Amino acid sequence: MYKVLTACPLFRGLPAEKIEELLAEKQYSVNRYREGEIIARRDTAYSGLMIVLEGTVRGQAPDVSGHPLRIDNIAAPQLIAPAFLFGGYNRLPIDVIADGDVTILTLHRGLIFELMQENIIIMSNFIDIISNRANLLSRKMYFLSFRSVREKLMHYLLEHTTERMREADVSDLNELSECFNAPRSAIVSVLEDLHKHGIVRYEAGRATVLNREALR
Fold it and tell me: pTM value?
C-alpha cells in the first residue's frame, strides 16, 4: 500500500518508508468493492478522504432528465473529491461507483489535519490539489457553456492535444457519449465531418489534429 501511495498526489515527494511512519498507529480503513458497487452516494456527508489504491471508479450524477451522467473517471492512486472534505457543506457532489474490482483507502478528516500538521510536504500537496481542482472546475464550467456536440468535441480535441502531440484517443465512444451527453452516432458524425474538411484525421479510434486554428 505504501509504495502505491508514493504516486498519490497527497503524498507526492515522500518515500514509502516515511508514509508508513506517518500512518503508523493511525486510524484508517481499507475496503474492497466489485464492479458496479456503489462506494458512496451523492449528497452524503463526506467525513473521510477516499484514495483509490487499486482499480478505477467513476463519478456520476443524474442529468436534467434523470439519466446517469458520467462526470469523471478516477484511477489509482488518485483522490476522490478532496475539495469537498472540508467546509460548511462537505457532502459528495456525485455517486462514486466501482469500475471493476477496486480498493479504497479512507483517511478520516481529523487524520488529514493531523498529517498536515506533522508534515509540511503533505500540507503543501493538499493546497496544490485544491488549487488545481478549482482550476479544473473553471475549465469544466467553460466546457459546459458549449451547446452543440461539435463545439464540445472541438474543445475536447484542443484540450487533449498540443502543437507537438497532435493525436487524441477517441476510441471509447461510450465515455465520450456520457461526457458530452450526446449519442455516439452524433460524435462519430462530427469526427467524420472534421475528417472530411481536413481539420482532423479520424481513423481507428484516433483523431489527429491537422489544423488547430480551424478548431479554435
Answer: 0.66
The residues, any chain, with a CB within 8 Å of residue 140's CB and separated by 6 or more, are: none
85 burial type by CB count under 10 A (0-12 exposed, 13-18 middle, 19+ buried): buried
What is the CATH number assigned to the segment(s) 149-215?
A: 1.10.10.10
Give the CATH class of 2-144.
mainly beta
- And the C-alpha cell for 191? 469526427
For the stretch 76-117, pLDDT in tens is 999 998 888 887 778 888 899 999 999 999 999 999 999 999
Residue spans of the domains in the chain: they are 2-144, 149-215
Contact 120, 49 (CB under 8 A): no
β-strand partners of 60? 70, 95
Cβ partners under 8 Å of residue 71, min gap 6: 58, 59, 60, 61, 94
CA angle, corner 46, sides to 43 and 48, nearest 5?
160
Cα distance between residue 102 and residue 61, in whole Å: 20
Q: How far is CA 126 from the centre of its chain?
A: 16
Residue 29's CB: how many other CB atoms inside 10 A? 11
200, 191 in Cβ contact below 8 A? Answer: yes
